[in-house]
TrEMBL record:
Its main location: secreted. GO terms for molecular function: cytokine activity; frizzled binding; protein kinase activator activity. It comes from Strigops habroptila. Belongs to the Wnt family. Keywords: Developmental protein, Disulfide bond, Extracellular matrix, Glycoprotein, Lipoprotein, Secreted, Signal, Wnt signaling pathway. This is Protein Wnt. The gene is WNT11. Transmembrane segments: none annotated. Signal peptide: none annotated. Pfam families: wnt.
Length: 354
């Protein structure tokens, strides 16, 4: 059988796309850095995977930040996988960093989410590291100017959001600031989505308080500004992913801008995730578009969300199988003060997509 011209074209296209025209989220490969790498000398920076030249320079001049950034890369992977575990596209391909498949190499909705999450995660992790005293270059965030209300006082150590945003965006936006890296449209889109991630991070700064006073009376509360957990920020971003806007790169006056593709003429909102390329439905395996398909994925017969067998299996049906779960049971309370339990085995029916 002779391969069709489309086959060659698709192969060629995926070749250009896969040779990494956009380096934006390749730094997530830092998650694979061996913990034995001490990272206390500037020449170690060259050994790190997935960095562009300007990121290697940032590494050399901010060595003390690198362990935190490596941790951020691990957080991105963990959080993305968890947030999308109930979806057809379950973020498993992020583990392939820095050599992604087309689901993340093209300007898709999925890549929009990963860019936003990565930008949020790096700033989140740095801001938190300031609080725990892990970084020499920063400490607690500023004490807010406003008074916290009666019964409350400022204290504790605020997350240093400002420092996190400055250092985080310097590092994670660096690939998009390079002259020769992918199309202008892609770079604009990635920068936009990264900024959306940081906006959600900023909005997550909230007042956190601890109680003081005689035996838990909570007559005085000490409060500080703390960031929400990354998994909550990721849930916000997942909602933005679900309502993301398709855009086109269109000339307006002397410059080109990303504008929504549908007829409603309006600029792109600062709060919405945007994408240039439509994604497949991820039902069937198709490597040309980076789809793993959902065959053999577990589904939930009683759910009516995205993990329901109907949606997950795309109407193909599902096969039941028996699974054993071990649980704590027959727990007894002993005076004083501990609990002992037995282990019980239970069989549950589970389902996988046909
Ligand atoms: C870097 O760390 C390694 C291992 O912890 C240590 O043996 C080495 O002396 C350190 N080098 C410098 C320049 O601090
Ligand atoms: C995610 O999807 C991939 C591809 O379909 C599958 O191999 C993997 O088991 C899934 N992971 C989870 C946690 O469901
Ligand atoms: C399935 O979905 C239902 C309803 O959303 C939920 O209560 C249950 O825990 C889920 N089961 C599993 C195995 O995830
Ligand atoms: C399932 O869908 C029905 C109606 O569409 C809704 O009322 C119900 O709350 C949903 N249940 C769950 C567990 O999401």
């Amino acid at each position: 059988m002779k391969p069709s011209p489309q086959f060659f074209l698709a192969g060629f296209l995926s070749l250009i796309l896969q040779t990494g025209l956009c380096y934006g989220i390749k730094w997530i490969a830092l998650s694979k850095t061996p913990s034995a790498l001490a990272l206390n000398q500037t020449q170690h920076c060259k050994q790190l995977e997935g960095l562009v030249v300007s990121q290697v320079q940032l590494c050399r001049s901010n060595l003390e930040l690198m362990q935190t950034i490596i941790q951020a890369a691990r957080e991105v992977i963990k959080t993305c996988r968890k947030t999308f575990s109930d979806m057809r596209w379950n973020c498993s391909s992020i583990e392939l960093a820095p050599n992604y498949l087309l689901d993340l190499e093209r300007g898709t909705r999925e890549s929009a989410f990963v860019y936003a999450l990565s930008a949020a995660a790096i700033s989140h992790t740095i801001a938190r590291a300031c609080t725990t005293g892990d970084l020499p270059g920063c400490s607690c965030g500023p004490i807010p100017g406003e008074t916290p209300g009666p019964g409350y006082r400022w204290g504790g150590c605020a997350d240093n959001l400002n420092y996190g945003l400055i250092m985080g965006s310097k590092f994670s936006d660096a690939p998009m600031k390079m002259k020769k890296s992918g199309s202008q449209a892609n770079k604009l889109m990635h920068l936009h989505n990264s900024e959306v991630g940081r906006q959600v991070l900023k909005a997550s700064l909230e007042m956190k308080c601890k109680c003081h006073g005689v035996s838990g009376s909570c007559s005085i509360k000490t409060c500080w500004k703390g960031l929400q957990e990354l998994r909550d920020i990721a849930l916000d971003l997942k909602n933005k992913y679900l309502s993301a806007t398709k855009v086109v790169h269109r000339p307006m006056g002397t410059r080109k801008y990303l504008v929504p593709k549908d007829i409603d003429i309006r600029p792109v909102k600062e709060t919405e995730l945007i994408y240039l390329q439509s994604s497949p439905d991820f039902c069937m395996k198709n490597e040309k578009v980076g789809s793993h398909g959902t065959q053999d994925r577990q589904c939930n017969k009683t759910s009516n969300g995205s993990d329901s067998c109907d949606l997950m299996c795309c109407g193909r049906g599902y096969n039941p199988y028996m699974d054993k779960v071990v649980e704590r049971c027959h727990c007894k309370y002993h005076w004083c003060c501990y609990v002992t339990c037995k282990k019980c085995e239970r069989t549950v029916e589970r389902y996988v997509c046909k």
